[in-house]
Write a structure and sequence with these properties.
Order of helices and strands: HHHHHHHHHHHHH
Mean pLDDT: 91
Keywords: Hydrolase, Membrane, Transmembrane, Transmembrane helix
InterPro entries: Rce1/LyrA-like_dom
Shape: globular
EC number: 3.4.-.-
Protein name: CPBP family intramembrane glutamic endopeptidase
Number of strands: 0
Largest sheet: none
Pfam families: Rce1-like (PF02517)
């Protein structure tokens, strides 16, 4: 495909091509991951994973293989292949430039830490949402999907040593942040920006797709907010790395807190959604808005970094 033909492609065409590439690679990755699990642990382990019977340590290890080979690596490959060989512009579609004020990362770190009460508030609102009675079957399917996702997460985040915590911090925290940001804030948000010509629309639509992608419907609102934050980090800075950093802080905090709770170092259960009160929700919202204002001004050069 010539460069002029690429430029003439409608963004919808690009989106369809990218989705096709992604599903094809994920499908191939799943077959490869399943073959590896069978070769290493046997067919029984694969069957137990399919049945969500993960009491067997081999099944839990096999789940990690499937997670990495069928999801993490394919998402990265799909984004890279599309940007490099289809769009032929990795700089524009992956936004890997490091040209942004480094102090921005400090502000984002603080922003992600103070966002916890707001995430809890949105989660509690989300949990109370109910579909009309005639959609009871859909509601049950959504709840079952959510419960299965929660069970899988609990298995993946079982940590009995500092070494296992660091390994999962690397995979769940860092690698997941990189590949998901390349996909949603890199390729998809860029395509949507070309389509809508509106950065706000691109950010919010990409965030909604990001949240829906996780198939955790009762956690849709807090993940939507995260997607919006990450989206604006990219729009303001022109780089994917502030979003990767914020994503890593969010995921990494969950990993570390889970490790500390599992090993009885803290009493706060990471699954508890009633840790904060309404005053904390309000305080979190106000501080988040102030830090977002600071983020935008630093990222766009309206405010100078104190590190210069």
């Amino acid at each position: 495909m010539t460069e002029s033909a690429i430029k003439q492609q409608h963004p919808l065409t690009q989106l369809i091509i990218f989705i096709g590439i992604t599903f094809a690679i994920i499908g191939g990755g799943y077959l490869l991951g399943a073959a590896i699990v069978v070769a290493v642990y046997g067919v029984d382990a694969l069957m137990k994973i399919a049945q969500l019977n993960l009491d067997d340590p081999n099944a839990a290890s096999g789940l990690w293989i499937l997670q990495i080979v069928s999801t993490t690596i394919p998402i990265f490959l799909a984004s890279f292949i599309f940007a490099k060989f289809i769009a032929k512009n990795t700089a524009e579609y992956l936004r890997t430039s490091f040209k942004f004020p480094w102090f921005l990362l400090v502000v984002i770190f603080c922003l992600m830490l103070v966002s916890s009460p707001m995430m809890e508030a949105l989660s509690n609102i989300n949990q109370k949402l109910r579909l009309p009675g005639f959609l009871a079957g859909l509601q049950k399917w959504m709840r079952d999907t959510e419960d299965n996702a929660q069970k899988l997460t609990e298995i993946l985040l079982q940590m009995k040593s500092v070494g296992s915590m660091l390994a999962k911090l690397t995979v769940v925290g860092l690698l997941t942040a990189i590949v998901e940001e390349f996909m949603f804030r890199g390729v998809i948000q860029t395509i949507l920006l070309k389509w809508t010509k509106n950065p706000h629309a691109a950010v919010w639509i990409a965030a909604a797709l990001f949240s829906a992608f996780h198939l955790e419907f009762f956690g849709f609102l807090p993940r939507l907010l995260l997607g919006v934050l990450f989206g604006y980090f990219v729009v303001w800075s022109g780089s994917i790395w502030p979003a990767v950093w914020g994503h890593f802080i969010n995921n990494g905090t969950a990993v570390v807190v889970s490790y500390l709770f599992q090993n009885q170092m803290i009493d706060v259960n990471p699954d508890d959604t009633h840790i904060f009160n309404k005053l904390a929700y309000l305080f979190s919202l106000i501080i988040m808005l102030l830090l977002l204002y600071l983020c935008r001004n630093i990222a766009t050069g309206k405010m100078k970094s104190p590190f210069k």
